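Handout for the seminar on molecular recognition.
Each group receives one record of this type.
Step one: identify the two inputs.
Step two: read the structure output and locate the region that could contact adenosine monophosphate.
Step three: write two sentences on what you found, then compare them with the reference statements printed after the record.
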Amino acid sequence: MSKFSDFNFSGHKALVRVDFNVPLDADFNITDDTRMTATIPTIKKILADGGSVILMSHLGRPKEGPTDKYSLKHLVKHLFGLLNVENPNPALGDPATRVFFADNCIGDQAAMTASMLRPGEVLLLENLRFHPEEEKGDEAFAEKLSRLGDVYVNDAFGTAHRAHASTAVIAKFFKPENRMFGLLMNAEVLSAEKVLHGSEKPFCAIIGGAKVSDKILIIENLLQRATDIIIGGGMAYTFLKARGGKIGASLCEDDRLQTALDILEKAKQKNVSSHLPEDAVIADKFAADANTEVRPSDAIPDGWMGLDIGPKATGIFNEIIGKSKTILWNGPMGVFEMEKFQNGTKSVAESVAASTANGAFSLVGGGDSVAAVNKFNLADKVSYVSTGGGAMLEYFEGKVLPGIAAIKD
Ligand code: AMP
């Protein structure tokens, strides 16, 4: 593989896999463009070198071939805007970056437009997943895509855990020196490696969110490395019930009670301190206008449910975070989408930010904790916010990500 920042793209047509899987509203307005803005530096570097860029991405999960709802054509205008924020007035001699669109990612039109692309120009291809071959990792499809460019750049960390045609299989059609990670992918990989393999101790992993079953593998892998594991959010109640607690109507996976006990036992054996919330903000219904009380998290009355960590738990968690040198955070501490149950998550976010200001390295990864740091305006106060939810999770589960392996092999 080559190093992206050292590569001179002058005269090259770079085929760049991006993750433009952005949320759209009913009128096809982009409601959160983080994934697009995250990859703009990669695109701009190629253009600035005098190369051209062919962008490929998926959008949503189209099941029945081409569908207007999932068309990447809805993104063209916004992409044009993002690429041209710094030269808003072409009439003054600063020509705007032109963005073309091909309404099929393979075929004659895509091939023709790609071949006619001039240095400084961008072509966005239609949704890769309009072809079922993409998700099947079909070789012939990958080969067709590969013909559109002469170098392959993977900047889609969010799909690096999938062995799809455009994320992994395609790499083999490029010589090792003509394939590389883009700037975003590289930053994601470096931050993840720093946490998992170069973590300064104490290393605290904060794991929250709804389901234990989603997080078992990540916790087990982190038990090999972490000093402290904080378990919050809905998943904590399965652990609390397994330990004999009364959790009322809180979220619980009854088929994971033994798993929860096993995890706590393994932590003990490995000298990892595991921390469950001592108290909880409980509610009489799952609603923004519920009645609430603070109770010990293992003594929740029937019919009530824990929807946030309580003030005691928050204090203890904050203290642990405060003394940590490496922090990994995945999953909120409560139903932070509702104001009454956001305090625990907000406070943890603030502690992670404060610890970062004191020199800790902090990585926030996984959809909902990212949404939380964004909600509390703390994204720029942590060391790294990962854009790749599922991929980051699988990385921390200890898996080899096909999108990374394909570039490196
Ligand atoms: P995950 O995708 O597994 O990280 O879960 C995130 C979701 O878990 C968020 O939408 C939260 O609202 C939800 N959540 C967090 N804590 C709780 C809780 N105590 N009870 C129910 N849902 C929760």
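Reference statements: The longest strand covers residues 13-17. The mean pLDDT is 95.
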